[in-house]
Design a protein that fits this description.
Layout (H helix, E strand, L loop, with lengths): L2 H7 L5 E7 L5 E3 L4 E6 L1 H16 L7 E12 L8 E12 L2 E10 L2 E14 H14 L1
Antiparallel strand pairs: 1-5, 2-3, 4-7, 5-6, 6-7
């Protein structure tokens, strides 16, 4: 892997601020229950994944991508649908192809979440080969 190129572009302290005005599609709705006016934790997780890809994937060679392998999130306060969520993701540590991100999220009323997100830089083709191999082994 082109670790030197990656290491020079993805450095500790690198940060992104991501904002999204929430909509009805961000509310919690399932077959068994719904909370139509509150942003769901799965929607918040999706925003975190999108923000991390926006920050990191353009900094690595095209044949690579980042994948998450561990996410710890405390969703500590509710957000009403329609409010804007702001996420700040900061690279806390880089170790070879491993990246640790710190997550802080807020809405117009204050902090809503805190967390850590481990991502790994992998080669696209090898990732797909492994996925297909695993499916054939079942």
């Amino acid at each position: 892997m082109e670790v030197d190129i990656i290491k020079n572009k993805i450095t500790e302290g690198l940060s992104i601020t991501y904002q999204k005005q929430t909509t009805a599609s961000d509310a919690y709705v399932s077959n068994t229950s719904s909370i139509e006016n509150l942003v769901s934790t799965p929607a918040l997780l999706s925003m975190i994944v999108e923000a991390s890809c926006n920050m990191l994937d353009s900094l690595i060679p095209q044949q690579y991508l980042t994948v998450g392998n561990k996410l710890e999130l405390s969703h500590i306060n509710p957000t009403l649908v329609g409010d804007t969520i702001t996420l700040i993701l900061t690279v806390e540590k880089v170790d070879g192809n491993k990246i640790l991100l710190d997550i802080v999220g807020a809405d117009s009323n204050g902090r809503i979440c805190l967390g850590k997100y481990n991502k790994v830089i992998v080669e696209r083709n090898k990732l797909m080969e492994n996925a297909y191999k695993r499916s054939k082994d079942w």
